[in-house]
C-alpha cells in the first residue's frame, strides 16, 4: 500500500443548497477518525479579517458594487492563503475548504457578468497554493434554490446571509454554468451529482477522497 499523502488541500464547492457544508463536516469527521490531522475552513470567513468581510459580502444590509464585491472576495482569499492555507499545509495538515475561487468564477464572473481577465489577474496575486482536489456538487437550480431559501428561513438568517439567494432562478442558472465552466478549465476538479440523499452523496465523496489520499 502506498503511504498516505500529507499536506493535502481539498475544496468542496457548489451552488447554494447543494449540501457542501454538510459534506465538509462529514468528511472532516471521517478523516479525523482514521488519524489524519484535519483543518476545516471556509471562504469567505476563514480568518479574523475574513469574518468581517463575510458579514459585508453575504448580508443584505450592504449594497456594494460588483467589482468591489470581487475585490473583497480576493482580499479574503489572500488573507486565507497567507494565514491559514499555507501555514496549515506546511505543518502537515489536510485542509478541507468550504468554497474557493471556483465560487468566485461562478458568482462574480458568470452570474454578475464581470470580466474573467480581472479575476485571472487577481488570482495571480492571491492564490499561491491551488487545491489538490476540488469536488463540485452539481444540482438542478430549482432544487438548490428551494433548499437554500428553506435553510435561510429555518435559521432566521434571510437578511444576514441571504444576499445571493434573493437574485432568483436566472441568476443561479448562471452560477451553475460558472461552476461547470470552472470544472472544464481548471485542474483537479471533479463534478458529482448532488440530487440524492446525504449518505449516498457522502459515499461517493469518500470514495473520491480515499483514492486521492491513497487510503
From TrEMBL:
One GO MF term = dTMP kinase activity
Q: What class of enzyme is it?
A: transferase
Q: Which InterPro entries match?
A: P-loop_NTPase, Thymidylate_kin-like_dom, Thymidylate_kin_CS, Thymidylate_kinase
Q: Which residues form the signal peptide?
A: none
Catalysed reaction, written as an equation: dTMP + ATP = dTDP + ADP
Q: Its Gene Ontology biological processes?
A: dTDP biosynthetic process; dTTP biosynthetic process; dUDP biosynthetic process
Q: Which UniProt keywords apply?
A: ATP-binding, Kinase, Nucleotide biosynthesis, Nucleotide-binding, Transferase
The source's superkingdom equals Bacteria
Positions annotated to bind ATP: 14-21
Annotated Gene Ontology cellular components are: cytosol
Residue limits of the Thymidylate kinase-like domain?
Answer: 12-205
- EC number(s) on file: 2.7.4.9
The question of whether ATP-binding is a record keyword is answered with: yes
Tell me which Pfam families the record gives. Thymidylate_kin
Record-linked HAMAP family: Thymidylate_kinase (MF_00165)
Q: List the PANTHER family hit by this protein, alphabetically.
A: THYMIDYLATE KINASE, UMP-CMP KINASE 2, MITOCHONDRIAL
Q: What does this protein do?
A: Phosphorylation of dTMP to form dTDP in both de novo and salvage pathways of dTTP synthesis.
- What NCBIfam families does this protein's entry cite? DTMP_kinase
Family affiliation: Belongs to the thymidylate kinase family.
Q: What is this protein called?
A: Thymidylate kinase
Q: What is the taxonomic lineage of the source species?
A: Bacteria, Pseudomonadati, Deferribacterota, Deferribacteres, Deferribacterales
Amino acid at each position: 500500500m502506498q503511504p498516505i499523502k500529507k499536506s493535502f488541500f481539498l475544496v468542496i464547492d457548489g451552488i447554494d443548497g447543494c449540501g457542501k457544508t454538510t459534506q465538509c463536516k462529514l468528511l472532516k469527521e471521517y478523516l479525523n477518525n482514521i488519524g489524519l490531522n484535519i483543518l476545516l475552513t471556509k471562504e469567505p470567513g476563514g480568518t479574523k479579517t475574513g469574518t468581517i468581510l463575510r458579514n459585508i459580502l453575504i448580508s443584505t444590509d450592504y449594497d456594494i458594487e460588483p467589482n468591489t464585491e470581487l475585490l473583497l472576495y480576493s482580499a479574503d482569499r489572500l488573507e486565507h492563503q497567507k494565514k491559514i492555507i499555507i501555514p496549515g499545509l506546511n505543518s502537515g495538515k489536510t485542509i478541507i475548504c468550504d468554497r474557493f475561487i471556483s465560487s468566485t468564477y461562478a458568482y462574480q464572473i458568470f452570474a454578475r457578468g464581470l470580466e474573467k481577465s480581472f479575476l485571472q489577474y487577481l488570482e495571480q496575486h492571491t492564490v499561491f497554493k491551488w487545491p489538490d482536489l476540488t469536488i463540485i456538487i452539481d444540482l438542478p437550480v430549482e432544487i438548490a434554490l428551494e433548499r437554500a431559501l428553506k435553510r435561510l428561513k429555518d435559521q432566521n438568517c434571510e437578511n444576514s446571509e441571504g444576499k445571493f439567494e434573493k437574485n432568483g432562478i436566472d441568476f443561479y442558472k448562471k452560477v451553475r454554468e460558472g461552476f461547470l465552466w470552472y470544472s472544464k478549465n481548471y485542474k483537479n476538479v471533479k463534478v458529482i451529482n448532488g440530487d440524492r440523499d446525504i449518505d449516498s452523496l457522502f459515499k461517493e465523496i469518500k470514495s473520491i477522497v480515499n483514492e486521492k489520499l491513497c487510503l
